[in-house]
Specification:
The complex is a heterotrimer of chains A (326), B (298) and C (330). Chain B is an all-alpha fold. Chain B contains 14 helices and no strands. Chain B has a single domain (25-55, 87-293), classed as MetI-like (MetI-like fold, Orthogonal Bundle), CATH 1.10.3720.10. In chain B, α6 (86-122) packs parallel to α9 (157-183) and α13 (246-253) runs antiparallel to α14 (262-289). Chain C has a single domain, classed as Rossmann fold, CATH 3.40.50. In chain C, α4 (116-126) packs across α5 (133-146), α4 runs parallel beside α7 (165-177) and α7 (165-177) runs parallel beside α8. Classes of the chains: A alpha/beta (326), B mainly alpha (298), C alpha/beta (330).
């Protein structure tokens, strides 16, 4: 295995609520090698955003993280808030959110807000250096300098999302998380932004995690796909393998429930049932109650994440019984 | 097969009754101020209801000894310049104050609710006209209007209540208008229109019940201010002379304030406690309505 | 009943007037947003037409005009041979029963204070459907179970917040079905749902079309969804139809540059789905304020030439069933 920039070891996240503990993420282990682009795919309630916020250590007070998140040799879980805000967030790992308009202050110019971030995180820079940096990141996301003088509401959705990416790149982080960063955009704009992301990844030598519910987005910008369901990692596979030969029944159902642009039109099948109650998650595999292949055993014991082929891990007891076409 | 294996979704374990009330009550309790206010109001209300038991002689029985200090001759709170028992007057005054407050606030609530919801839901020219009318009422200095009306029509308690109510409604109307404007863009209201429901029914069955909560919080403040206004009117001598009201008691005590402080101070304390009770309850309701405090639903 | 097509939209137009600054206000000059501009089409019974386009293209406005939730500023709308524009009173109420709408946001489809059972009964009471409460509940249970919502009784006592998005949208569809409409506008009914439950809603609509011969106008931004559900697709850009035709024909061979751009930029869910390289299109959809003559896509179109900026192209067939509004085709 090549050197990992980020490694998650048995990460579990629980929220304390009035109705008990909500187990949002359960025992997730994942390696993110330097330069990789991991696609984290899952539906609402899968815990994908919780996991991303945990990496940024931005979870609300009532969240509890256990396990280890090793980033460049250091455990993020045990870092203190002051360590994180000095030299970690933005400088080592940054995040681009979905609702970019809400992430910016509506009464300050974009340039001012970006400069504030720089002043806080890289106080050694002089004013001309800061301005140079702002100019550079805007150029790299192909925005004109006039954006700096604009207020957030004056920009279109696509320009706003580009500014958010520029903000993410501002302190040259080696690692960037995109949380549904293109979800609210129109079709054509979305494709444009995804292309920019691809280009920037090479230009800045970025390692990325792309979170989306949309398998189309995952297909466009990732090299490895990790499937989350109800907080459990169900399958990790190279992108081509995931789309051509998914092994986990949930991955299969997820892919086949999406209507196609080409090919024969067959009746789509949804996944019957609904997400389990995460305050009282089922024993064993969390997908078992909705799984067409589920057996008694699936409901009793959580199957381990097994490597069925190099780089292809599946959490399903049914796997060894089936023929794995590598 | 799939059906029998389907796990219990979140919804099924939720209580059968609408969980909203229970959740809101627990938020109200969590606000800390709310329950304290509610407790104060319950005590004040009990005192008002049980007035004949606490003071069997009524508020107007003239005593032998005038300006008796608190605690003397069985008068716990002393007597006033006519020898009337202070406690009896305060206890009966609670009835008057609560009735004035509640009636005035109800008038204000109903007028504001109807005007505001119609303006907000229909919008356009209807909204323009109603909003201008609301603004007009808002800029009238209420207290002076009340003084003028009471001075011309007489100081019966009914006038006082109605006039307070009719000057306080613009705040409720504005709240309700904002509520109606946001509700009318919600999907379920669009859906009802598409289903063919009449505007009148949408307004009264869906817009108002869904938007009324902030008005209730506001109404508890209205009650408090109505009590204060009535006290103010009584204090300047425009109150109903046939009723024992707290404001009138303070008014009566003003001439003897240096020698018999209790005649003014005790009714003053009664006003403060009651008004505080309503404010705290209003605070509690506001806390419940604040989306920041709402519990995350899974 | 009638030979007339279910829906005939004849040059429907919807302009919104906005006064901008104090100067325009004083001069009495108002800007006009062309939300929808001269859209014409017919819809037959048991036919599904998908309106496809990006946000702000006017597809939702067209949908709302079709069920009289928005009044057209010009143009005529005919429903089963009857002019809809001037309907009022009892006739309008009957139209409201026959022409229904399903909305995008399933989480707000029902009054949060009422149980699902109450909301569903209310829909029937509006149109005096069912003899008594027992009869109404009977019908509700029948329709729900046919839509796979079993056991139906279990849903009736729930409140909206106790439902998942998918369940809520399916019940919203049931509510519409209870009135046995002949025509339904579905405005992005699956865009807020998880992928795993989208198929259920789409299949529910397809089944209803088959059972009740319902005509459906399905509004979506997703060409793959449009292909799955629709017989015909109309691609919209800035308030106009740029291309209308059989779904398969448009997917296989889009003729308008905008349709081509839209299709090639749609992200494929798997490599075998990839059509061509995404066609690069500059800029984003502008706001259609004070529109000048000429093709509305011209300033973003890589193939635009002089004529495109002067003359508005008209929707016409160029061999085949698909109609295209583009000067490139002659």
């Amino acid at each position: 295995m090549s050197e990992s920039l980020l490694e998650l070891r048995n990460v579990s996240i629980r929220y304390r609520t009035g109705r008990g503990h909500v187990s949002a993420v359960e025992d997730v282990s994942l390696q993110v090698p330097t330069g990789a682009s991991i696609g984290l795919v899952g539906e609402s309630g899968s815990g994908k955003s919780t996991l991303a916020l945990a990496l940024m250590r931005l979870l609300p007070q009532n969240a509890e993280v256990t396990g280890e998140m090793i980033f460049a040799g250091e455990n993020l879980v045990t870092k203190t808030e002051s360590q994180l805000s000095k030299g970690w967030r933005w400088r080592k790992l940054a995040m681009v959110f979905q609702k970019s308009l809400a992430a910016m202050s509506p009464v300050h110019r974009i340039g001012q807000q970006m400069e504030d971030v720089l002043t806080i995180h890289e106080p050694h820079l002089t004013k001309p250096e800061r301005e140079q940096r702002l100019h550079d990141v805007l150029t790299s996301v192909r925005l004109p300098n006039r954006v700096l003088r604009a207020y957030p509401f004056e920009l279109s959705g696509g320009m706003m999302q580009r500014s958010m990416i520029a903000l993410g790149l501002l302190c040259n982080p080696p690692f960037l998380i995109f949380d549904e960063a293109t979800t609210a955009l129109d079709v054509i704009t979305q494709t444009q932004i995804l292309k920019e992301i691809e280009r920037l990844k090479a230009e800045y030598n970025l390692t990325t995690i792309v979170i989306s519910h949309d398998v189309g987005v995952i297909n466009a910008v990732t090299d490895t796909v990790a499937v989350l369901y109800a907080g459990q990692l169900m399958e990790v596979a190279p992108r081509e393998t995931f789309f051509s030969n998914p092994q986990h029944p949930y991955s299969q159902a997820l892919i086949s429930s999406v209507p196609r642009l080409r090919g024969e039109k067959t009746r789509l099948a949804g996944i019957p049932g609904s997400l389990p109650d995460l305050t009282n998650p089922p024993q064993g595999c969390r997908f078992a109650p909705r799984c067409p292949h589920a057996t008694e055993g699936c409901l009793a014991v959580t199957p381990p994440l097994v490597e069925v082929a190099p780089g292809h891990l599946v959490r399903c007891t049914d796997i060894p019984l089936r023929e794995v076409v590598a | 097969m799939a059906q029998t294996l389907t796990s219990t979704p979140v919804a099924e374990i939720a209580p059968r009754r609408n969980g909203r009330w229970r959740a809101q009550w627990s938020l109200f309790v969590e606000s800390r101020m709310g329950p304290i206010g509610l407790a104060i109001l319950i005590i004040v209300a009990l005192v008002a209801i049980c007035a004949p038991l606490i003071a069997p002689d009524g508020p107007f029985k003239l005593g032998a000894t005038r300006l008796l200090a608190p605690g003397k001759e069985g008068h716990i709170l002393g007597t006033d310049h006519l020898g009337r028992d202070m406690l009896a007057q305060i206890v009966y005054g609670a009835r008057v104050s609560l009735v004035i407050g509640i009636v005035a606030a109800t008038i204000s609530l109903i007028v504001g609710m109807v005007v505001g919801s119609i303006a907000g839901y229909y919008g356009g020219i209807v909204d323009m006209v109603l909003s201008r009318i609301t603004d007009m009422f808002l800029i009238i200095p209420a207290f002076f209007l009340i003084i003028i009306i009471v001075a011309t029509l007489g100081s019966g308690i009914i006038y006082v209540m109605v006039v307070i109510g009719l000057t306080a409604w613009p705040a409720s109307a504005r709240l309700m208008r904002a509520q109606a404007m946001s509700l009318r863009e919600r999907t379920f209201i669009h859906a009802l229109r598409a289903l063919g429901e009449s505007n009148r029914k949408i307004l009264f069955r869906h817009i108002i019940p869904n938007g009324i909560q902030p008005l209730i919080a506001n109404a508890s403040l209205d009650i408090a201010s109505a009590i204060l206004i009535e006290s103010g009117l009584s204090f300047i001598g425009l109150g109903d002379p046939n009723k024992a009201t707290w404001g009138r008691m303070i008014y009566d005590g003003r001439t003897t304030i240096t020698t018999a402080w209790w005649v003014s101070v005790f009714p003053g304390i009664a006003i403060i406690i009651t008004v505080l009770g309503f404010y705290l309850v209003g605070d509690g309701i506001s806390y419940v309505l604040n989306p920041r405090n709402r519990k995350v639903r899974t | 009943m009638s030979e007339a097509p279910l829906i005939v939209a004849d040059e429907l137009q919807c302009l919104f007037t906005v006064r901008r600054g104090p100067v325009e206000f004083i001069r009495g000059k108002a800007s006009r947003i062309h939300a929808v501009d001269t859209v014409s089409f017919t819809l037959e019974r048991a036919e599904i037409l998908a309106l496809v386009g990006e946000s702000g293209c006017g597809k939702s406005t067209v949908g709302r005009m079709l069920v009289k939730m928005e009044e057209p500023t010009a143009g005529a709308l005919t429903f089963a041979g009857e002019t809809v524009n001037a309907l009022s009173g009892a006739r309008l109420k009957e139209f409201r029963r026959r022409a229904q709408m399903i909305f995008q946001n399933p989480f707000e489809a029902f009054d949060p204070r009422l149980t699902i059972g109450t909301s569903l009964q209310q829909a029937m009471q509006i149109h005096n459907i069912g003899k008594d409460q027992h009869d109404r509940l009977q019908r509700i249970v029948t329709v729900m179970e046919r839509s796979g919502l079993t056991p139906a009784e279990d849903f009736l006592s729930r409140y909206p917040h106790e439902l998942s998005g998918g369940q809520s949208q399916r019940i919203a569809t049931v509510r519409v079905m209870l009135l046995s409409p002949e025509f339904v506008v579905a405005d992005e009914p699956v865009s807020m749902l998880d992928v795993s439950v989208r198929a259920d809603i789409l299949n529910q609509l397809l089944d209803l079309r088959d059972e009740l011969d319902m005509g459906i106008v399905f509004i979506t931004h997703d060409l793959a969804v449009a292909r799955y559900i629709a017989d015909r697709i109309a691609v919209m850009y800035l308030g106009m139809f740029v291309e209308v035709g059989p779904a398969e024909e448009i997917l296989a061979n889009p003729r308008h540059p905008y349709s081509q751009a839209l299709l090639s930029n749609t992200l494929p869910a798997g490599d075998e789905d990839r059509i061509t390289e995404p066609m690069p299109i500059g800029g984003e959809v502008p706001t259609p304020v004070d529109i000048q003559p000429g093709c509305r896509f011209a300033n973003r179109c890589p193939f635009a030439f002089d004529r495109c900026f002067k003359e508005t192209p008209i929707l016409q067939a160029h061999g085949g069933k698909t109609e295209v509004a583009c000067h490139l085709l002659g």
